[in-house]
Design brief:
Helices cover about 45% and strands about 10% of the residues. The protein is mainly alpha-helical and about 130 residues long. A 3-stranded antiparallel beta sheet has the order 2-1-3, with no helix packed on it.
């Protein structure tokens, strides 16, 4: 099972690398700047966590959103894709965080007394 996850992860990383290396030129201009540039100076960790978000709340009823779902793209794009769900369950917005902040967020959820833990409790009561 771990092998499947690793293959899927490699596939996603390879796909993102291909996207970041695409160069488009403006019509009629020979030396136009690439529309998308790859940042070769960034560290390996930055490339893996940039643009990756995780939902740290409980699974929603009817399988609308599963706990620990990961999304790739800008935060605006993630919220746009989840618009139907966030209209019905606005607390979901508080529980979508960058993967790089997962450890700190889990500590916040455990400690309680903050907006994230309150949103988690509201969604936990749904069934």
């Amino acid at each position: 099972m771990a092998r499947v996850k690793n293959a899927a992860t490699e596939s996603i990383i390879n796909e993102n690398m291909q996207i970041s290396s695409v160069e488009e030129t403006v019509e009629g201009q020979k030396d136009a700047e690439p529309a998308v540039k790859s940042n070769k100076k960034s560290t390996c960790t930055d490339q893996r966590t940039a643009g990756r978000y995780i939902y740290v709340g409980p699974s929603l009823p009817a399988g609308l959103l599963k706990a620990n779902s990961i999304f790739i793209g800008s935060k605006d794009r993630v919220f746009h894709d989840l618009e139907r769900i966030t209209e019905q369950y606005p607390e979901v917005k508080r529980l979508i965080i960058p993967v790089s902040e997962l450890t700190a967020t889990k500590r916040e959820l455990i400690s309680g007394g903050n907006a994230m833990s309150a949103a988690f409790k509201v969604l936990s009561k749904l069934k």
